[in-house]
Design brief:
It is built from one helix and ten strands, in the order αββββββββββ. The chain has one helix at 2-25; strands at residues 28-36, 42-51, 54-63, 69-75, 81-88, 94-101, 104-112, 118-125, 128-136, 142-147. Helix content is 16%, strand content 55%. It has a ten-stranded antiparallel β-sheet, with no helix packed on it. The chain is flat, with a radius of gyration of 25 Å.
Length: 153
């Protein structure tokens, strides 16, 4: 009888300690406002996760003073831009999209006129323009083509 009480209490204690350990190690997610406008509305914020005591930022969002998003994109664990970043005008219309890898432009970049027509399209490699970039007028007609040469790897 005494032995079985001891076994039950040990199992209970082990289960309790295991649960506490698992809860303290789990990823916690949140958002922090990093800048505010004078009116108190958020100007910029970052989403983050806490894993094993380390804070890992995952996204950043910036806002225009009217509350519309101005910029959004993913971040590396070190807080550098990564993946596709999108920018919008104050009226909410798409302004541009650029791809990043570890904080450097790396991939396609496209910008648009306020009327939605493409302004330019090109490619970055390791933070430098590469290859042929196309430029358009507000009607969507190509008006310029510029060759930035082979990418420097």
């Amino acid at each position: 009888m005494i032995k079985s009480d001891f076994v039950m209490k040990t199992k209970y204690l082990f289960t309790l300690l295991f649960t506490i350990t698992m809860l303290s190690c789990r990823t916690q997610n949140g958002r922090v406002v990093t800048e505010k406008f004078d009116n108190g509305k958020p100007k910029a914020g970052r989403w983050f996760a806490v894993e094993h005591g380390d804070t890992l930022f995952s996204r950043e969002v910036q806002y225009h003073s009217n509350g519309e998003k101005s910029l959004e994109g993913a971040l590396t664990a070190a807080g550098e831009r990564d993946s596709t970043w999108t920018a919008w005008r104050e009226d909410g219309k798409l302004w541009s999209q650029t791809t990043y890898t570890n904080g450097k432009e790396n991939g396609v970049s496209v910008a648009y006129y306020p009327n939605g027509q493409k302004y330019y399209e090109g490619r970055y490699v390791n933070g430098r323009r590469a290859g042929i970039w196309l430029f358009y007028d507000e009607t969507g007609r190509e008006v310029n083509r510029q060759d930035f040469g082979k990418p420097l790897e």
